[in-house]
Specification:
alpha/beta; L-arginine/glycine Amidinotransferase, Chain A; Alpha-Beta Plaits; conserved putative lor/sdh protein from methanococcus maripaludis s2 fold; 4 domains; 7-stranded mixed β-sheet; elongated; binds arginine
C-alpha cells in the first residue's frame, strides 16, 4: 500500500437515478438497485483501499449524485478549486464538499458564480504532473480554464468534448503513469486531437473502440501500475497488460445508469506539486462589438452559434436592444478560444458577420510580404463579397475591387495607401498582403425585418413556384430591367445551353436587341446550340419547331462548329451573312461583348471560345465591372464563377428548374439575390411579355 496516495469517496446511502442530466440517465430513473449499487461500491472501495488510503465524505439526503466525488473539486497540493455545477440538480452538493475540504486543511478557491466547472470530472493531471488536461463543451466552461492555471500554477491544455455521451473529460480520457494515455479520440474535436497527439507520443497513446468507450473503460482509477475499471474487452485488457499495467476489473453497472463508473466515484486528493511547472494557459479572450439589426437579421444567433461550433465560448457583456422597429442593436461579446489558432478561425468568421474589435482595442492590420510569385503568406486573410475596410496607419482604408476568395494587397505610395482584392495567383514578390484578423472590418448591409421578409417571400414564392408567383417575380424583374436600361445601367447575363433547348433563344435574342443586356458570359455550348438552331433549326439535334429529334441531328452541331471555324470567328460568320439570327448574332450586331469560357467537355471549340481558363476568368471579371444586375440563366458552372467575382450589392437573379441549383446560387448571404425555380424558356418568354407590357404603358420613361 502506498501511504502517500489518498482518495475521497462517498457511500451510496442516498444514491439513485432521480433526474436526467446526461444521456445515460435517460430511461433509467429509479432503475438502479440500491443493494447492488451498495455492493458494487463496496467492492471498488475495497480494491482501492488495497492500494491507497480512502477518506470518506458523509452522504447527504437529496443529493444522489454525491457518490461521484470526482466532481467535488480539483485538488493540487493543498489547494482545491470547488466545483460549480452546471445543473441545479447537483449544485446543492457544493457546500458539503467545500466543508470537507476546509475541515481537512485545504485552501479553497471558488469560481465566479455562473462559471461552471465540474472538478476532477473535467480536469485531469498528466500522471507525471507536467500539465493539466481540462475539458469543456458540456459541463465546464472554457472561461474557467484560466482560473485553474492561475490558482494551481500549472499549465492547462484545453480539450473540447463533442459527443454528449462523453460529457465529462474523465468519461473518455484517462492519463496513466509512465506518460501513457487511455482515451477515445472520437469524443474530441479536431484541434483537441491534434493537441493530444502533440503532447503524447504515438507509442503512449492507447486509443479505444466505441464498444469499450460506452462501457466507461476510460473512467478508470490509476494508482501507479494498477488500473481499476469496469468490465472491458479482452483486447483492451491485453493492450494495457502488454505495456505493464495490472488491470483490475470490477462491475459498476448500477453507476453506469447515472453516467459514471470507477473514476467518477473517486477523487484523488493527493496530487503532488512539481516545482518547475508554472501557470500557462493558451485560452485567449477578446471582446467584439456588433451593430445592426442583430435580432431581426439573425446575426446575433449566427455569431453566438459559430463561436460555439468552432470550439470557443462567449459571454454577452452588453446588449443594447434597438427599441423601435427601425433602430439597430449593439452588442459587446467576450469571445474565448482554447488557442490562438482557434481564435483566429472564429474571428475571421465574426468579421464576415460585421463584428469589430472595441474602438479602444482596434489596431492596424498586419501585413506580410509575398515571398514567391503567386503564393500568399500562410496566414493571409481571405476576402468576402462584403465591402471591407482595413486599418493602415491608424486609418480605415476601403478595399478596392471587392470580391470573395481573394487576398487583400496593400500598396503604400507617396500619395497614400490603397488596398485591393487580388487573386492569389496574381500576387507579386514583395507585395504586402493583409494577414491575421486585426484591423479588418466588413460592412454587412443592415437589413431590417421588412427587407428580410420580403426577400424571403420572393425566394420561397419562387420555390413553390405556382405559376402566378413566378409571374409576380418576373414582373418585378422586368420593372428593374427597364429602369436599369433607362438610366444607362448594366445588366450581365450568364446563360447555359438549356436556354436554347427550352426555346428561350428567341427571347434572349430580343433582350439583347432591345438593349436590356450589356454583356454575355457563357461557355462554348450555348453558342454552339444557338448557332445550330439559327443555321439548321435544331438544338443538339432536336427540331425546335416540332420538338422531335432529327435523323442524324447529332451531327448538326459539329457541322456548325466547323463552319464557324472556317470563318475564323462568330463575328466573321455574321459579316459573311452565314449567321443571320440568334443570340450570338444579336451580340455581334448590337456590340454586346461576350466571353465564352471553355471546359473539358467542349466540342470544337468555336474559335471564340477561350480555352485558357485564367484568361477567361480575367475577361469575365473585366466584363462584370460596374454591373447592376446579373441574370443567371440555367448554368451552375458559369454562374458560380461569376458569383465568386461579384461583390455584395449587385442584384442577382438565378433561374433554374433545379431548386438545389437555385438555392446554391442564391444563398450567398447576400440580400441581393432572388431565386426562381422554373423552366428557363418559360421564364424568358414571361419576361419578354412583361417588358412589352411596360413598353406599351410607358413608351419613353417609366417614372420611378
Ligand atoms: N449523474 C452524474 C452527472 O451527470 C454522473 C457524474 C459522473 N462523474 C464524472 N466525473 N464523470 O453529473
Amino acid at each position: 500500500m502506498t501511504e502517500t496516495i489518498r482518495f475521497l469517496m462517498c457511500a451510496t446511502d442516498f444514491y439513485e437515478v432521480d433526474y436526467v442530466i446526461n444521456p445515460w440517465m435517460e430511461g433509467n430513473i429509479k432503475k438502479s438497485s440500491f443493494d447492488r449499487a451498495k455492493e458494487q461500491w463496496h467492492k471498488l472501495y475495497k480494491i482501492i483501499k488495497e492500494h491507497a488510503i480512502v477518506d470518506l465524505v458523509k452522504p447527504e439526503k437529496g443529493w444522489p449524485d454525491m457518490v461521484f466525488t470526482a466532481n467535488a473539486g480539483l485538488v493540487l497540493g493543498k489547494n482545491v478549486i470547488i466545483s460549480r455545477f452546471l445543473h441545479k440538480e447537483r449544485q446543492g452538493e457544493e457546500p458539503y464538499f467545500k466543508k470537507w475540504f476546509e475541515e481537512n486543511g485545504y485552501n479553497v478557491y471558488e469560481l465566479p458564480k455562473d462559471l461552471p466547472f465540474e472538478g476532477a470530472g473535467d480536469a485531469l493531471f498528466d500522471r507525471e504532473g507536467r500539465w493539466l488536461w481540462a475539458g469543456y463543451g458540456f459541463r465546464s466552461e472554457l472561461d474557467s480554464h484560466p482560473y485553474l492555471a492561475k490558482w494551481l500554477d500549472t499549465e492547462v491544455l484545453s480539450l473540447r468534448l463533442i459527443d454528449d455521451r462523453f460529457y465529462h473529460l474523465d468519461t473518455c480520457f484517462c492519463p496513466l503513469s509512465g506518460g501513457y494515455l487511455l482515451y477515445y479520440p472520437e469524443a474530441f474535436d479536431f484541434y483537441s486531437n491534434r493537441l493530444i497527439e502533440l503532447r503524447v507520443p504515438e507509442e503512449k497513446r492507447i486509443a479505444i473502440e466505441e464498444a469499450d468507450a460506452v462501457n466507461f473503460a476510460c473512467n478508470a482509477v490509476n494508482i501507479n501500475s494498477v488500473v481499476i475499471m469496469n468490465k472491458v474487452s479482452e483486447t483492451l485488457q491485453e493492450n494495457l497488460t502488454k505495456v505493464g499495467f495490472q488491470v483490475i476489473q470490477t462491475e459498476l453497472t448500477e453507476f453506469l445508469k447515472a453516467g459514471g463508473a470507477a473514476k467518477c466515484l473517486t477523487l484523488r486528493v493527493t496530487e503532488p506539486v512539481l516545482e518547475d511547472v508554472h501557470a500557462t494557459v493558451s485560452v485567449e479572450s477578446r471582446t467584439i462589438r456588433m451593430e445592426g439589426h442583430l435580432l431581426d437579421a439573425g446575426i446575433m444567433n449566427q455569431a453566438l452559434d459559430l463561436i460555439v461550433e468552432k470550439g470557443g465560448s462567449f459571454k454577452v457583456l452588453n446588449f443594447n436592444l434597438g427599441i423601435e422597429r427601425q433602430s439597430t442593436s449593439v452588442a459587446e461579446v467576450r469571445v474565448s478560444a482554447p488557442s490562438h489558432e482557434v481564435m483566429e478561425d472564429i474571428m475571421t468568421l465574426l468579421i464576415d458577420l460585421g463584428a469589430c474589435s472595441l474602438p479602444q482595442e482596434i489596431c492596424d492590420a498586419l501585413t506580410e510580404a509575398v515571398k514567391s510569385e503567386g503564393v500568399a503568406p500562410d496566414d493571409f486573410y481571405v476576402s468576402t463579397i462584403y465591402p471591407t475596410e482595413v486599418r493602415l496607419n491608424s486609418e480605415w482604408v476601403l478595399v478596392q475591387n471587392q470580391r470573395m476568395d481573394g487576398c487583400i494587397a496593400v500598396n503604400k505610395t507617396d500619395s497614400g495607401i490603397t488596398a485591393s482584392c487580388k487573386l492569389i495567383r496574381d500576387l507579386q514578390v514583395g507585395e504586402e498582403v493583409v494577414v491575421g484578423v486585426e484591423g479588418i472590418r466588413t460592412m454587412r448591409q443592415t437589413q431590417s425585418r421588412e427587407q428580410r421578409h420580403s426577400q424571403e417571400f420572393t425566394f420561397m414564392g419562387a420555390g413553390v413556384s405556382s405559376e402566378r408567383r413566378v409571374e409576380l417575380i418576373v414582373e418585378q424583374i422586368a420593372w428593374e430591367l427597364r429602369q436599369i436600361r433607362d438610366r444607362g445601367g448594366k445588366v450581365v447575363v450568364t446563360a447555359g445551353p438549356v436556354v436554347i433547348h427550352t426555346g428561350g433563344g428567341q427571347h434572349l435574342s430580343r433582350l439583347i436587341r432591345e438593349g436590356y443586356v450589356q454583356a454575355l458570359l457563357a461557355g462554348n455550348a450555348i453558342a454552339v446550340h444557338d448557332i445550330e438552331q439559327s443555321m439548321m433549326g435544331t438544338s443538339l439535334g432536336v427540331d425546335m419547331q416540332r420538338g422531335i429529334p432529327v435523323h442524324g441531328g447529332h451531327r448538326h452541331h459539329l457541322k456548325v462548329i466547323n463552319s464557324i471555324r472556317g470563318c475564323g470567328s462568330i463575328a466573321n460568320a455574321v459579316e459573311k451573312g452565314l449567321l443571320t439570327r440568334g443570340v450570338m448574332y444579336e451580340c455581334v450586331k448590337n456590340n454586346v461583348p461576350f466571353c465564352l469560357a471553355g471546359s473539358i467537355r467542349d466540342d470544337g471549340p468555336l474559335p471564340d471560345t477561350q480555352m485558357d481558363l485564367i484568361k477567361a476568368q480575367t475577361e469575365y471579371s473585366e466584363l462584370l465591372k460596374g454591373t447592376d444586375m446579373i441574370l443567371m440563366l440555367s448554368t451552375m458552372l458559369h454562374s458560380i464563377g461569376v458569383g465568386n467575382m461579384t461583390p455584395a450589392g449587385v442584384k442577382m437573379v438565378c433561374v433554374d428548374i433545379n431548386p438545389a441549383v437555385v438555392t446554391k446560387l442564391s444563398d450567398r448571404g447576400s440580400i441581393e439575390s432572388v431565386g426562381v425555380v422554373t423552366d428557363v424558356g418559360l421564364f424568358l418568354s414571361l419576361l419578354v411579355q412583361q417588358l412589352d407590357k411596360l413598353t406599351s404603358r410607358y413608351p419613353i420613361h417609366p417614372t420611378v
